[in-house]
Every structure is written in C-alpha cells, then in structure tokens.
Amino acid sequence: MNIYQEELLDHYENPSNYGTLPNPDISHEEDNPLCGDRIRIDLIVEDDIITEVRFSGHGCTISQAAASMLTEEIDGKSLTEVKKLTRDDILDMVGIPLGPVRLKCALLALKVLKAGAYGIKGWPGEEDK
Amino acid sequence: MPTPYFRPLDVESIRKDFPIFATTPPLAFLDNAASTQTPRPVVEAMDSYYDTYRSNIHRGIYRISEEATEQYERARDKVAQLINAPRSRQIVFTRNTTESINLVAYSWGSANIQEGDEIVLTVMEHHSNLVPWQLLAQRTGAVLRFMEITDEGLLDFTQLQDLLTEKTKLVAIGHVSNVLGTINPIQSIITAAHAVGAKVVVDAAQSVPHFQVDVQQLDCDFLAFSGHKMCGPTGIGVLYGKVELLEEMPPFLGGGSMIRSVERDISSYAELPAKFEAGTPSIAEAIGLGHTVDYITQANLAALQVHEQELLKYAHHRLQDIEGITLYGPSSPHQKAGVISFNLEGIHPHDVAGVLDTHGIAVRAGHHCAQPLMKWLDVIATVRASFYLYNTIEEVDRLYEGLCRTQKLLTRRRK
C-alpha cells in the first residue's frame, strides 16, 4: 500500500489541534536527531482529564500527521487512559505499513506525550528491549 | 569532448548481470554512495567457495584449504593491482572503510599521537573519518582542526597554510565527499602535509569504486575503502599502508593468525599483512572482492567515470529546472563524482524519498553520516541520488518526473 494515503495527507495539510497553549499544565518537546523531526505537545489537565491539547513542530508528513491523529485521540480522555496507548495503537491510527525508519516518525508524538505526561523515556514499543 | 580511447560502457549488457533490475518496472537504484548492487559473477565466485572449497585459510594441510588460501591471497593481489600498491602485503583486509580507519587511529595513532599534537580534517568528512579521530584526541589530548569549505562546496585552500604546522601529525581527508560529490584535490594536500612532516590518511570509500586511484602517485600514507560500494559484498574492506609504517605499528586486534609465537605472558607477531588480520577473516567476501575488481576493471574504470559524468551532467541539467529545488555542492559536474544532493522547498527529505520509493526509485534521505556538513549547509537532511555503472539516463528522467510528482502531492498548503 502507498504510504501517502489521502487521510494521512489531510492530517498533514490541515492538522487538528495545531499550535501552542499559553499556560499549559504539561508541555514537552523532543526531536528525532536522525531526521530532525520535532514535536511539542501542550496539555491542560483538569481532574485527570485532558481538556485541551495542542501540538506544534515540524518534520515529515508521517510525524506531523501522526501527531495530529494522536491529539484527536487523547482530547477529552483521562491521563490514566492515555497512559495505556501503545505503539500498535498509533500504527492502527496511521493505518499504513511503515519501515523501521518511518516507524520512528510515526511514534515521535507518542514518545513526546509519554515523556511529558508520565516521565516515560524511550521509544514506544522498545521499553522492554 | 575528449577522444575516447576505450569502449564506452555497455550498460544494457551490464544490467543483465544484476538480477535485481529484472523487475517490471525496473528498480531505479540511485543510492550507490551508500551501497551498490552485486553482479552475478561476484555472487557466483562466492557460491563456488561455499559449494566446492569451503574451509579455513592459511593452516589447513589439505587441498581445499590450500585452494581457499590461494583464492584469498589472489584477491589481495588484485586489490593491490587496482590501486597500484607496490606490494600485496600492504593490503590489509578489514570489514569496511570504518574499520580500516579505526585500525590506523588505534594502532598508528596510539603509538604516534601525543598531547598537543594536531590532526587536520575537513568539515565534509563522513563520520567514519571523524569519530575515530575524536576518540583518538580524547585518549591522547591531541587537537582536531578543520579545513572549512567554500560556498561552492570546495575545500578552502586559503586556510591550508595556517592549518598545517609542525604540530600537525596527521591529515585525514575524504577523497570524494559522500554528500556533495566534491572530488578533493588531495594530491596537493598530501604534498603540503608531507612538507610539515605529517602523515596522510585518505578515506577513499567514494573514489576507488569510481575512478582510477594510484597510491604511489598520490604518495598517501594510508588509504581506506570498502568492497560493498564497488559492486562487492558487504563485510570486506581494505586498508592500504606504506610498508615502513605498517611494519612499525603495533597490532590492532589480537588473536589467531596475527601471531608468530605465543607464550603465556607474551607473543611475537606475524609479518604483514597477517599482523593486522586477527581471527578468521571474511573469506568468501575477500574472494568476492577479488572478482569485483575483475568486474569493474573489465568494464573499464575510465569508461565508468565517463558514464557517471554523463549521468551527473544530465541530472544537473534536469533537476536545476525544478522550481523550489536547492542543489548542494559544486555547480560544475566536472569537480564532482556521481553524487547529487538536493532539497525541495517545504518538503521533508524523508517524504521526497518516501514518495520516490512508491515509484520504484531508491534514493537516500538523511544526514548521510555527515552531521557537521549538514550543520554547515544549515539543513537537517538532504535527498541524495548517486550513480554507478548500471544507471541510465532513463532513470534520471524517472527521478525528475518522480520529483515533480512529489511536489504535486506534498506541496504544503498549511501556513
């Protein structure tokens, strides 16, 4: 399957929740030095519920589209719930097969989210390796 | 046009030696600066070792081991001939260019570099010709100094006199930039380095596969390259060194094969080149490399170079017409080997390579193991197309069309 699917390109061109928040409860930014993709995620959290989310940054279509999809997914959910999101959940959202290099592009947003919200370091799916 | 004294490459028949191109549509493989394809005669030579005389070398007192030893050493002779090394024992087999350079850094470097000594490099070095020297500098207290590059992507020679002093003990320089394609005039750098008493290591990973390199003419002290960038197998590389240097150097890795005699506490070491080939080497791969040398020599390196120049000129001509493209490196193809690096405005290099891949075109996108150069270019990454003897003008056309389609698909509408 062609990795440049319409849905992915739509998210890239018209991303959801793009921007920053003035007084976020949680804000975290990381990059992938291999390709320079950079993502920042800002959250407002009230009683464990994510009430506002924004992402910003730059990079390839996959990193930016995956970040857009992830913010849609977590908006309104509890931090406890969101903590359970895995690598496979992101791959389901993105919905296309990815090689090892592009996989990291897709996972960068989740990595940033987990590091910012829970202090979990490392690439999703590789924690136990 | 120079008068051709040789047959031009018969690309059509060359391509038949590479089964990977037999698909429809054929794979346009334009990532040859990273690694090349391997022709049938080379694979068959390795198969023949595995099928008919598979055994270890140098010690077997039986026929097939003698055969393996002979083939392994014949490969060394062929490599020596390829780069015009005076003696075959100056050819050390390693895993790759990186290991060859590390061998020099550890063995020669540890014995000859002291605190305050200076090692001169260039900003365009591949990490393999940079990190080993950083490690050596950290171990010894030596200082790394860098030759800058001009806006054109050429080495800035105005600095050379300031850089080379009596403190300079070593100059480590890439013959051809794996990103910009720049062919560096290393002959004059070697002469200048020798004038201040410095030794010179040449990273020839991107030159030996593409044109005639003569170590005696260059008078370099060490020269390193890899088999897998010249149609050979992976896992086999070469270090050439001057005899007197190699003989004085302490061993790099210790183990079998590299010894003369071993006692409990001390050993004496084997003669060249065995001193630097500890353990069972990549036998099949060395034999494969010998046949690789036959293959590219038969194709004719001079003809190969002309062919790559034509592809490069055509690629420059076509790609520079694309709106929003930035080409990196010398604008004149004559100062370059078959490498073209570029970016499309507003599109991440990974996406360019990703879309081209959907059209059966393999190019590289990334920092190309040259992060200091990326920083100098002020980019995170570039897209790179690189050519070899089996590439065609039609593939350059496909690259051009693929880039136009990429722009159509991905030109950002957002902010």
Report on this model:
The complex is a heterodimer of chains A (129) and B (415). By secondary structure, chain A is α+β, with helices and mostly antiparallel strands. Chain A has a single domain (6-118), classed as Sufe protein. Chain: A, CATH 3.90.1010.10. In chain A, 41% of the residues lie in helices and 21% in strands. Chain A contains 5 helices and 3 strands, in the order H-E-E-E-H-H-H-H. Chain A has helices at 6-13, 61-74, 79-82, 87-94, 100-118; strands spanning 26-32, 37-46, 49-58. Chain A has a 3-stranded antiparallel β-sheet, covered by helices on one side. In chain A, helix 1 (6-13) crosses helix 2 (61-74), helix 2 runs parallel beside helix 5 and helix 4 (87-94) crosses helix 5. The longest helix of chain A is centred in the C-terminal third of the chain and has 19 residues, at 100-118. The radius of gyration of chain A is 13 Å and the shape is globular. By secondary structure, chain B is an alpha/beta fold. Chain B folds into 2 domains: 11-30 and 300-410, Alpha-Beta Complex (Aspartate Aminotransferase, domain 1), CATH 3.90.1150.10; 43-297, Aspartate Aminotransferase, domain 2, CATH 3.40.640. Helix content of chain B is 38%, strand content 16%. Chain B has helices at 11-15, 40-52, 63-82, 97-112, 131-140, 160-163, 186-195, 215-218, 243-248, 283-299, 301-319, 349-358, 371-377, 393-410; strands spanning 28-29, 91-94, 118-122, 143-147, 168-174, 199-203, 222-226, 237-241, 259-262, 267-269, 325-328, 339-344, 361-362, 364-366, 382-386. A 7-stranded mixed β-sheet of chain B has the order 2-8-7-6-5-3-4, sandwiched between helices. A 4-stranded antiparallel β-sheet of chain B has the order 11-12-15-14, covered by helices on one side. Chain B is globular. The termini of chain B are far apart.
